[in-house]
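Hi,

I'm pasting everything inline rather than attaching a file, because the server keeps stripping attachments. The sequence lines come first, and each chain or strand is labelled.
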Amino acid sequence: MDKPSSSSLKNQKSKEMAVTGFDSINDDLVHNILKRLPALSFASAACVSKSWNRICNHILSRPKFASAMSLNPSSLVCAQEVVDRVLSEPIRPHFAIANVVGVFVLRADAILEFLADKLGSRTPIVLSSANGIMGRNVVNEEFKEVLPGDSCSDGDAEENLDGSCGMVLTVGLVPGLKVEAIPLIGITKVPGMGVVDNFVMAIRNFSTSVSGSTSPLGIIMFGDEESELKCIVEKLDYALSKETIVVGDEKAQFVCRSGSEAINIGRRRKVSSGAVALVFARDREKPYGVGEIQFHAALSDGVSAIGPRYKAASVRVSTSDYTTWLTARREGRQDILDGQRILNDINDDLGNRIECPALFIGVTRRRKCIIGSEKSRFMTSLAFHAVIGGDEEYLFADGVGIKTGDYFQFYHSDRNTASSSCTNVSEKLKNLKLGLTNRSFFQTEDVANSVQEREFIGGFIFSCCGRGESFFGRPNVDSSPFLENFPGIPTAGVFCGGEIGRGLSLNANESSEESITCLHVYSSVYLLMSYTPMASLEH
Amino acid sequence: MASTDDKVILKSSEGECFEVDMAVASHLQIVKSVLEDCEGSSDKVVSLFIVEAKYVAMIIEYYKNYVELKEKHEEGGFEEKLKEFEKQFLEQIDKKELKGLVMAVNYLNAPALFDVVCTAIAKHIENKSVEYVREYFGIVNDFTAEEEAQIREEHRWAYDGVNDD
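And the predicted assembly:
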């Protein structure tokens, strides 16, 4: 603190100074007052004078997340509550993610418009409907996972959701990064390759223009439930560098704002889209003094392999409902098996251990990938398809894209796997927090040396709607890795119908099959953002 | 904490003297360090040169209550009681005095009260126009018209949805 010199103190003028001369006092005091303002008043304060503007910019030079959940049954009250909460402290929204559950999906257009009013018409905003949401409730500050009814099983979802609705809002300030919502334009069940190429190219072009690198730092993606995301994510995986983290919800319903354009709005959509990517790229023109933001991602697996490997013997695609009808051979055998026989074998293997697990086949796909006119390359990936059933002819699987000769194996949802992998993720986050993580995760040595200075700024979770309290038999298991390690940082999440998780840096050392898939089932995908201040990068 | 028998005299800018318990005065970091510097000296008068008597009185009132409440509610409940008192304390201070008080508290380096007063000032300028804030703090707008337009544009997101004021 500045101590005024004694001669001036005794000066008669000093008395006056103590009353009026507010601009003569040090910036610290102003800083201390301004940091307590809610976001809107803070924005006004930045317009007061040059020195105040400088102080405001300084306060906003560190990244910040704010998230809040409300379960108020009125959609507008609910939206107002979460907005008030996320704007209760200084922040400048660089992006916003809102997730609604229940009947609010019917008000999505109005809610999006409201958010654009409050958070800025040019702020990239994605609003998705999810099976469930998680976040800190504005009413009692409690973190809660809300997964109404058994909404994952189709049918009378509307009925189950009746009366339970809510919204979680995440707003982020990410100095040093630029964020853009890039939609996949064109909505078809299986998007044409040209459409996908354009989408991937748009992401790369944005990243290149901002950072000089074709691969952005990270992507948060929302797919439309009507649209098949496998080929899009596969192409992204092919087109982007290994370090780029992609997380998201494969089967949402979403509306969004990109630039000042609204997408998927209205019944007769002017612009409609099958997927949207919130792309985060490093700004090569970031102001001096701004440190570095890192993304970290981890996966909690929830399925276990069971039974032998099979090889698809015949494949039929039903284009009416986008299912695949299969026959198969056991690996190393000649006889062709029908759906009934395959399922009987698997059920024998499952025994009575589990009442009724969700069943998937994981298909190992080896496909030639190409983007635009670039050179093609083979990519191997594991694609999960839900098993719908089997008869004396075929095994029925959800989705398309399986070819004759593809190998596959059965997987079943497994609470023990899920539970222990959650513990595992928690352990990894703890190590990350303590700075014990393997060095190879860091992009530069400087960053590795400064892990102690690292701050964690916010988290987001994508969990399978089949998990949650009813799956684990106890609450908040999916969110536990964050709650245990980072109880103070803003965290939000959704329960969804398919989790996107790529570039899972925290799982990097595990040599398991999940490393070759980006679309997971019965999993939880964790995204954590951290910040290393400039000062500690320099020393 | 110093024993309650200890007294110290705080002298305002006008020369007015306030006798206070050491337990109270020790919350003012500047007083504490001055006393430490002249340890052993029998003269326990600390001049608070730039602080007017009315602010000295306010600060003493705050910390007197602070110390009393803390003693009384050692078992718990101190924080709620303090909040109650703070509310009532702030009610008797007008907006203009808040500014003087925060500078006095800043000068005396008294963390708890500093927090309270900063929050009160922030509350006061919440939702006020830029012009009001300038006037309240006596700040001269040093932006050129173009600069101000540009700054306001940067913060436009905050006003997109605002139709009035």
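Chain B touches chain A through 47 residues (CB under 8 Å).

If the labels don't parse on your end, tell me and I'll reformat.
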